[in-house]
Every structure is written in C-alpha cells, then in structure tokens.
Amino acid sequence: MSQYDKYLLHSNTLEERDILFIQSIAKKIYNSGLVTPAVLFLEMSKPLSLIGSHTLIFFGPILNAFIQSEDYYRAAQVFEDSSTVDILLQMIEEMEINSKKLTGNINE
After folding, report:
1. 72: buried, middle or exposed (CB in 10 Å: 19+, 13-18, 0-12)?
2. Are 81 and 11 contacting, i.e. CB atoms less than 8 angstroms apart?
3. Contact 26/86 with Cβ under 8 angstroms?
4. Does 36 score more than 70 pLDDT?
C-alpha cells in the first residue's frame, strides 16, 4: 500500500502524479507561512472550483503566452473537482500538525 492510497481513495479520477502535484502545492503553501489565509481561501472557494477550473482553461492561451507552465492545464483539470481541494486542505493540515509535533507545540 502506497503512502498516497489514502488520497487516491477520495477520488477515482486522480493518479499518483496528481497527488504528487497537489503535495507540491501544499508544500509551497506551507513554506510560504500563509497557511491560515490559504486554508480560509480554499474553504471559501471550494464550491466554485468547477467555475474556476473552466476560467483557467478559457484564459489558458492568454496566460500561457506570458507564463510557460507545463502543468497549467493539468492543474485546471485536477482542481475541477472540489474533492481535490479537500485533499489539498488535508495535506496542508497534516504538514501543520507534523510541524507542531516536531516543535512540541501540539496544544496550539
């Protein structure tokens, strides 16, 4: 059983590379130090994930002229489902909990 199986069970459309992609986003959010605002924003935008995904696809040709990213359209496809946002939130919260365990601030 892989370490990503618990996330793959939440969605039948995600692959292991998608989980790794989501995990890299979670690490970037955690390392930025903006965990609380990011979690708040993600929770609020969860119902709009489908609309946001379609907006990313619509503006893709324009944005890709300025920002060259090979994962741009994959991100739009992955975050189309609100369960993916739940997985991202879960990963961020796990990183926060693990950090608090390591520093001994479990009660915060």
Report:
1. middle
2. yes
3. no
4. yes
Q: Are 27 and 63 in contact (CB under 8 A)?
A: no
For residue 79, CA distances in Å to 99, 103, 108 come to: 26, 32, 30
Banded pLDDT at 68 (limits 50, 70, 90) = confident
Distant-in-sequence, close-in-space partners of 96: CB < 8 Å, separation ≥ 6:
30, 35
Q: Which two tokens stand for residue 67?
A: 């920002």
* CA–CA distance, 69 with 40 (Å, rounded to integer): 26
Q: Which has more confidence, 94 or 11?
A: 94
| Residue 79 and residue 85 in contact, taking contact as beta carbons nearer than 8 Å | yes
User: In this structure, what DSSP letter does residue 48 have?
Assistant: G
* Residue appearing with tokens 């992609």: 21
Contact assessment for residue 22 and residue 71, using Cβ atoms and an 8 Å cutoff? no
Residues 22, 10: Cα–Cα separation, whole Å: 13
Q: Which residue has the tokens 């890709």?
A: 64
